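Example 329.
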Amino acid sequence: MARPLVEALRRRPVVRRPVWIMRQAGRYLPEYRELRARHSFQDAVATPAVAAEITLQPIRRFDMDGAVIFADIMTPLEAMGVEMTFDPGPRLRPHTLAEVAALGPLDVGRVGFIAETIRRVRSDVPDETAVIGFAGAPLTLLAYLVEGGGSKDYMRLRGELRADPAAARAALSTLAAAMNTYLAMQIDAGADVVQLFDSWAGVLDRESFRDMAMPPAARALAGLEAPRIYFAPGCGHTLDIQPAVGAEGYGVDWRLPLAEAWARLGDVAIQGNVDPAILLADPDTIRKAVVALFAGSAGRDGHIVNLGHGIDRHTPPENVATFVEAVRA
Ligand code: CP3
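Predicted structure in complex with coproporphyrinogen III:
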C-alpha cells in the first residue's frame, strides 16, 4: 500500500502531505518520562518491548506519518566496542583518528535488538505509517568520538581534520562502512525509509564539507533499497552541493524559507522546516506557520512536513496536536 512518506520521497502526488517530527519520541511526552523513570536511556534502547512502546507513543497521540525508531545515533558504536554513558547526551573517552579507523566492522548480531524493535513497530503501526530507521553520518559520529561528547564549536575535530586529512579519511571510511551495514540491516528488518543525521557537519566550511562530510555520507547511503533522507542542519551554505550524497530527500533547518532552500537543492524531495520554537507559541502562531510553510512548497510534489530540528523538550504536547491538525487541514 502507498505510504505518504515514501510517496513524497519518490516525488509522487500524495493523498495527504506526510508529517512527522524529529525527536518525536522523547522528553516532552509525560508517558516517555514515566517510562524513563524506570529504565535508563541505554536499557530502554536495548529492550525491544520498551523501545517499541516509546516509538509508538507519539503515533498513538498524533497519528504521525512516520514512526522513528527509538535509539540513538551512538547506539551502533556501542556495538563496535565504544563505551559510553548518556547524560543526557553521549559521554565517552576521546578517541584518536587511528583508533576510530581501527574499530571493527559492525557485527549486526550485536544490534539485533534494533532489528527486533523495527519488526515490532512495523507490525503495530497503521499500514500507511512509514517506519523510519536512521544512523549518524560518519562526520557527526567522528565529532563525538574525537571530542568525547558534544562540543560548542568542535575545535578538536576541526583541528584533527586539518592536521591529518588522510587519517581522518581512514576513520570516516570505517564509520561509513559500518553505517551502511547498519542501515541495510534496518531495511531488512522492515524500515520503509532511512535518515542519515549529519548534525555537526554545519561547523565545516563549504570545501571541508564537500571533502570530509559528503563522501562518507554517500558511502553510508550507497546501494540501500529504501528511500533515504540526508539531514545536515546549519548547512544553508552547502544545500546546492548536498544532492551529490545520493539521497532521495534532504532535511533543511528553519534558517531559510522552504522555497529558497528548495531552489538551492534542486530536483529532490525536501523535509522541514518549521522553527521548533514555533511549537512553544500559541495555536494561532502555529497555524500561521503551517500556512506559510505550505505556501513555500506551492505546486511541487515531494514535501515532507517536519521541524527544522528536533522538538524542544519544553514543548506542550497539545501544541504538537495543533501542528499536525493544521497540516492535515
Ligand atoms: O524520536 C526520535 O527522533 C528517535 C530517537 C532519537 C534520539 N536521538 C533519542 C534520544 C534520534 C533520532 C536521535 C538522534 C540523535 N542523537 C542526534 C541527531 C539529531 C540531532 O539532534 O541533530 C544526535 C546529535 C544525538 C546525540 C544525542 N543523544 C544528544 C545530543 C542527546 C541529548 C540531548 C537531547 O536532545 O536529548 C542524546 C540523548 C537522547 N537521544 C535522548 C533521546 C530521547 C534524551 C535521553 C533522555 O534523557 O531521556
